[in-house]
Design goal:
4 copies of one chain form a homotetramer. The first copy, chain A, is of the alpha/beta class. Chain A has helices at residues 18-28, 59-70, 184-200, 212-215, 219-227, 238-250, 268-281, 284-289, 297-303, 327-335, 351-359, 373-381, 394-405; strands at 3-11, 32-39, 48-56, 75-76, 83-86, 104-109, 112-115, 124-130, 133-139, 149-152, 157-160, 204-209, 233-236, 252-253, 256-257, 262-263, 307-310, 341-347, 366-370, 387-391. In chain A, a hairpin with a 2-residue loop joins strand 6 (104-109) and strand 7. Chains C and D meet through helix 1, helix 2, helix 7, helix 10 and helix 11 of C and helix 1, helix 2, helix 7, helix 10 and helix 11 of D.
Chain lengths: 412, 412, 412, 412
């Protein structure tokens, strides 16, 4: 016995290789397919449309396959109505809950379509009805509470893939793969353009950074970028902030004497003392206000009234008083800063880049810069398909970016 | 004006290059030195002893330099008495607190020497006097409370470097550097010997693992090693446990179909559903007891009554109900499992390896295995000088390790 | 003004993403296209066929685009007759020469189709007519001589892509990407199967190796594989052979004391002396015959009457007397050994792997094993589309491979 | 039975860790030692001197150990007279030949000391006596001819380690290790200083480059550096030159469309056609003279009358007519350009960097820049102890270097 559903997908299906991936998914999930119809654009500019009947062993398998296909932008031809089940435990979704994509999503309830407020992947969809008004929003598993209405199965749900204009796209250059063999100066310029466009559109620029920003000597460049208005929010961990502060207080960063360009193995004594100093002050802002902290990235963010969210990890010393030690609370604090973000730059951190990639909707352009190809690859592998990777030196990249974006930028 | 102190260090000073590093440290901290006396062993087996007068600008600089030198095993010739100051804030050490090494440490109070109970680096030293009895122990910054007595400055403190027998040492092979160009089969055998020796001495074997253990297909080998008694404690994150459980429930691990050897990009739908299933059960043990979870690494640990500590990170989905979401609480839970650990193997995780390296005393042999040289280098750079690195494939390494340690081991 | 040609391509076009790459190529070369017809298979097993009209600015651009598309298996619907021009300089092709792919190729002359004898990419096609008999073969640029007849333009040429059976293929597991996160034990087994199949079909197994084979301690495993008949030909450089011989004569390999598992920085004194010893003997075989060389990989190849081709590089010391110091002569010697090769394993060398990848026809299965992902990626980027990559430890990989292939294999 | 010799070494023995390495060497070669005397400098600025009696099993072992120790700058206290043996075969040194270091070397014959003309490692020392005049020079193994007088054993030979001023050295910053975590902008400035100093001293700047220079878009920066006089000689392979020429002729480099910043998989058709074009012209200079080649790095070298040596490898297509296809002849051509070189920069090539490192005397400052840490590490491991490594992005590095060195440099 088997069960089928007819789905459709529209777009530059062949150009983008998306159709191959859809058929791969069907096989991966043990399903089968018949291509009912395939309207191919005749010209390069035309859009293709495919209608496919997918078959699975049973309804549960089919529903899961349909959810999987939605991550590719595949919708049911006749989606029907969304099905809603009440959660009966805190922190646990009902069986068969709909697992979200990071695409723009709508659901149909009682014949009407509702937009999902905040696309985020790997969440559930919660329906709130209050009189005539209906809200649908994503919620992570840990935040669901007994009695909440959770969408189950794949019925009644449509997703939309962000349309990327072939050729005209500022990020067309990075279409293919992660590579260290690309004209890097061109890439810098295009990232600068992306930031300028976001600011011009009234959007915020989100940075996600690791301690490598400080180690590679890029802190002065980043400070200038903060002052020039190109850093609205910073997501980071205890390490970036502590090394930045350590560098400001003692002129070192975990053993790098930046002024002299001399490296030492490790200098944890400076590190741990910098942490104690800020803990004594009470917070980074308090340390700035009291004149203890007078330079660096964190100082610039505070004095320029920019936002930052620091989330801890198990390897942290200290940590700084501003750090969320509970990672789930940290994720909530990050989510709260995502509104109006129009561009995201991730620099020199795998942990916080993957964490941010998990939270961002697919519609936000995202560039990941790291000297380690694995970081960029990992990000893409986790499903942040909008992620573009640049494998390059973080220090020189930010130096060049400041040269592009900050008028009269000179290293002092 | 300047201030001086005479220090001494003993050991295979020239063989090990330790003297160069000591002199480098003095320069790094802006100090100066005169070598007062240097008794060099005439024969290869002899021990050298150096007496050095170090000079710094002022007392604060000198104290900090002396603390730094203690990480190399350098002690003051006339250490005097330890100085103790009461903490006047929760979570903050007094200025000038002694920042610990991970070496065996003693402090002198009122003319008597006391052993520090639990060496751990980057902590403070707390003195507790109760009637005639005196305890001295390390405490991380976040756990200090107002009124606790904290050792300040470098006086009255002696450290001892673990003696490594040249040549006879099981880990002599790894003396030099991280390298992928070493005879790997020999290394596997020597790690196996290290584990056997620890078990023979009644000690525990601690594993620190990342999800790569599951992705590389090494879970069956690790299950056999658990059953054979070579895994007493596992430190990991949400990822290893979830991918292991996902693999057990659905035969996949973030997109790797292990049975078929086929990879997919990502399969978060399985991932998120596995998390929901265990959250519904209440805990990993509950899922084993109720028959939901019937195989894999976590199943083996539960059924063999072994310990595990899972500490979360900001990129986690779910997480599993067993995961510490507060990283500081997670560190405390890890510390609580360190007693009687006699060998530590770190596999395929940078985050949890560095975290564990921060907690372990220098006396515990520690081997870090990763295909990424950066992970191993990072660990060594952080000051875990006892860390030995093997750059190799995790899957094949654990397969070979099981062949060495598990009688009649065959992959099924 | 512009000029057009109608082309066609057949196969699992959407599954394999080949169609997207074809359309990308057309854009890369500044051309345009109209898809005239696209017959999509309804079922997963069906083959698709596309007919496309491609347009370019002028005939030269069109011819070059058509040559480019042939690397994807795209042929002209009406290929017409091949056009032949005489070379008028030694070592130089006529303008507009057809640049070959590594696919099975036929050309049409006077209405008849002829098979190209030895597909190899980046060569020219030479036509030899002797009475009624016609030969067509590939020839590298440096070997062309005045008066030879060289095919020009893309007319009259058809290529065939090797058919890879979906699912049933032994190498299906590696379909997707280079990855270090794959179940390695499964991969080893499948490489073993590939070698067994080649031998069962009466084909030769070609190895391409770098010095890492010796450094990782895998020489004993490789020696056993030679003796068991799974190494028919070895392509390598001066380094693998010298380190192997050095290890045999002195127990070291560029500073690795294999017996003790101890590493040193470099030990060029052994290295240079080993080279002198073999040069004095006259050749590797002479050194074996005279009892100077009594163990190791090269010894095994000589005593088992297996073939090897050593080609030098600019960094070589010595070199060994058997090494081709002229790289073009070295390439000729490699080509001469390709007949009847049915499987190729490349281990721990980028230079010789890329060199061999350049020479091999697309029909020969090829697996590249290296701990460095860049090596594997580079090979694939160069157009060896049949190349499958395994990022793993070479030492443990060959150890496992010997366990699979050599009855009663035990490390001595 | 055993045999001994007394040796001495002078310098900052403890600072530099050199003494530990000497003692390691003795153990590696199975020898033993007694430290007879060790005069340690009291102050940081003082030089130490050690006198050591080394013992080996027999004379051959001792001689080889003494040669090994000379690579560390260790000389015999009483070196005696050099022993000379006639070669009795072409291309083969006599048994027991002295294997050279890359240090400044003198030998004693008939009571007089003679400077070795051209220090190069892994060579033999040839003595030529013509009447009263005596020459001593290094010669690679392949160039020795029957009847030449070759120095054997370690007697009568002294080497001198180049003195590196602590702290004042322009390259002090790179003293420690290969690292990607260093302030890159500082490093660029210091490399620029090194080049300026060499030019000011009337010395030549040698570049060694790989195709990554072109792929990363750095060719325009390098062209400006050629024109500004900071590139006197280029050592490279067929690939750099061909990709540069391909980029000039077709605007691509192995699939990188530099103008648009778009990457493609591979574009060998352009590549092979560029080779044919230059082969037709006869040489790169002929192609420049005839107006075929009008831009790029090779064009700049030709029009600025700078030198280049291109040496081929087994993976080459073509190759260009200027390429030495015989690698031993290529090495000779490289040697011929080393006179008066005062600074060497190696960029994005492992093969040619190691080759050049083999030829250079230890006295020439050498910086190796690559995004791949393995390249830099490999170079250092091979014995080029004067090599300093910078792990960074080649494209951005050269862009910054041009900003430092070329007045009014702007990217067009």
């Amino acid at each position: 016995m088997s069960i089928s559903e007819t789905v459709e997908v529209t777009g530059h299906l062949m150009d983008s290789g998306i159709l191959s991936r859809i058929l791969d998914d069907i096989r991966e999930y043990g399903g089968d397919y018949v291509i009912d119809r395939f309207d191919v654009g005749h010209d390069a500019a035309d859009v293709s449309r495919a209608t496919i009947t997918v078959t699975a062993e049973d309804d549960e398998s089919l529903q899961r396959l349909l959810m999987r296909l939605q991550t590719r932008g595949v919708n049911q031809v006749d989606p029907g109505e969304a099905s809603v089940v009440e959660a009966d435990m805190d922190g646990v979704f009902p069986d068969g809950f709909y697992s979200t994509t990071n695409l723009a999503t709508r659901i149909r309830l009682d014949g009407r379509w509702y937009d999902v407020e905040n696309p985020e992947m790997d969440c559930g969809l919660i329906v709130e009805q209050d009189g005539g008004s209906v809200r649908v929003y994503t919620l992570p598993m840990s935040d669901v509470r007994t009695g909440m209405k959770v969408v189950c199965g794949a019925s009644g749900i449509k997703v939309s893939v962000p349309v990327i204009e072939k050729g005209s796209d500022a990020f067309g250059f990075m279409e293919s793969d992660v590579s260290s063999e690309k004209p890097q100066a061109v890439l810098v310029r295009q990232v600068a353009d992306g930031m300028r466009e976001a600011k011009a559109a009234g959007k915020k620029v989100l940075w996600v950074g690791g301690p490598g920003v400080v180690h590679t000597g890029a802190a002065p460049a980043m400070v200038q970028l903060v002052k020039a208005g190109f850093v609205d929010v910073l997501f980071a961990g205890n390490a970036l902030a502590t090394h930045d502060i350590e560098s400001s207080l003692y002129g070192t960063s975990l053993g790098i004497d930046l002024a002299m360009g001399r490296g030492v193995e490790h200098g944890h004594e400076h590190h741990i003392r910098a942490l104690n100093t800020i803990r004594k002050a009470g917070s980074i802002r308090a340390a700035v206000d009291s004149g203890v902290l007078t330079s660096g990235i964190m100082h610039a963010l505070v004095t320029q009234d920019k936002r930052f969210v620091l989330v801890g990890s198990v390897r942290d010393d200290g940590p700084l008083p501003d750090v969320y030690t509970d990672v789930i609370e940290g994720q909530r604090a990050m989510r709260a800063e995502l509104k109006d973000v129009g561009f995201c730059l991730m620099v020199a951190t795998m942990l916080h880049s993957v964490a941010t990639g998990n939270l961002l909707p697919a519609s936000i352009p995202l560039v990941c810069v790291d000297i380690n190809p694995a970081t960029v690859t990992k990000l893409a592998d986790r499903g942040s398909s909008q992620a573009k990777g640049i494998v390059t030196d973080v220090g020189l990249f930010l130096e060049q970016l400041a040269l592009e974006l900050v008028p009269d930028y000179r290293r002092s």
